[in-house]
Please model this.
Amino acid sequence: MTSVIDAAPARRAFRLTRLFQGLERVVVPALLIAGWEVFARSGVLPPALLPAPSAVLHALGDWVFGFDETTQTYSGHWLRDALASALRVFGGFALASLLGILAGVAIGWSRLFEKTLEPTLQMLRPIPPVSWIPLAIIWFGIADKPAIFLVFLGAFFPVLMNTIHGVKTVDHNLVRAGAMMGASQRQMLTDIVLPAALPSIFAGLRIAVGSAWMLTVTAEMVAVKSGLGYVLWDSYYFLRYDIVLAAMISIGLLGYLSDLGLKAIMARTLRWQQTTTVQGRAG
Amino acid sequence: MAAIELRNIVKVFSDKRRGRDLLTLDNINLDIEANDFVCLLGPSGCGKSTLLNIIAGFEQATSGRTLVDGKQVERPGSDRGVVFQQPTLMPWLTAIDNVAFHLKLKGVTKAERYDRAMEFIDLVGLRGFEHHHPSELSGGMNQRVGIARALLMNPSVILMDEPFAALDAQTKLEMQEELVAIWQKRRCTIVFVTHSVDEALVLGNKIVVMTKRPGRIREAVNFDMPRPRDITSPEFNDAKRRILSLIREESTRLAQAS
Model:
């Protein structure tokens, strides 16, 4: 005897669960924003000191599209400001990645470089990058260069440390296998050690891109006259907290997007890490 | 001239932590002829892997001479193909790229690399899986890739360090049969390290029984039973009894000594 089971109620229940699971993620932020909106409108604090989310969104909109000049001189200039910051992030990050990977491979692979270079770098590492600001300003003046220098300092060490770790933990037998197949010293580095260290290097790059955004914004507050960090700090002087918050949101968003981009590159490059196994045998 | 000549090989590991030296290999003398399938048989810790690593050039003997094709071994090289206990493939390369890695290092074009690698992919029965990554293949399949990789270099000797130890019993039997078939087809010299008497007798035509700590050669036994070998036949069992008694004598001697 066969019994026919009506799947519709189960499917309906499943759809409800899915809906609820989608809601789960937005419940807390939605409540926070709604509470913030209500509190801001209640007049406990002057609106200039705590702008409502709607006001922040309004400022951000005008900053990006320039529809009613509520953000005054910034109106419609968001792209220019974001691009200025992004270029500093990219410049410092690219330089830090290149030098961090090179130095990391050298230190991780060669005892000589480890002994000569590492102590100096490890002494420089605990110095907070922001404490270099006074020196950066007298060396490079007020422009892109001090910002790129700070971004470099913040991004270099995570890349360096993770590359060293990646190179040092390369499976010893892979190196033996390479030697068995006749790899030269250079081929050993480019064809075996570097690809084997890539997962670790990418972990360092992701930390580095986060610090790159942090330091760009810091540098722009102090040593540069453009970019999102500059807008943020300048608006604070004019008590435009709606623009301050809009700038914070922009930085958060761009930082998040940079990490997403890096993750996408990582997923493509490290596709071999997937761990699905074909069982059984051929032939 | 033998394919591999080992002359008075001594290997001492210095245990720095305890401040004493450990004699691992004590005066090993062995000639391996071309096209021999030699099994180095001994308990774990007898230095059989160390001996293989010395032939491979991964480790240096404390004293003694290692000659392959009459040439002194100084460093690893593609004249000696090694199959490791774990497959030890480059995890970021597909099966065919792993097999062809030696050709890539030599700067051979991709088309020719793939062309030549495919022959060995076929030989180990992995056609259809050549573009899989090691993480997508089973342990036995990865070990086949490792064998194909060693064969492609067309080395004068192939050194295998318990390559089937991590495989399940059934896969192990299949791999042993295929290895013998490959050896018969391609006529190469194989040195195979194992701690299993059965495995040594299924594979080898010369079984070198080693003693435990310090590693010495107890006896090198020739075993020319025709193939395929029936592991339940009287002839196989006779040989097994002989090898086991060699090992047993050794353990009694050790027990009495201590």
In short: DSSP finds ten helices and no strands in chain A.
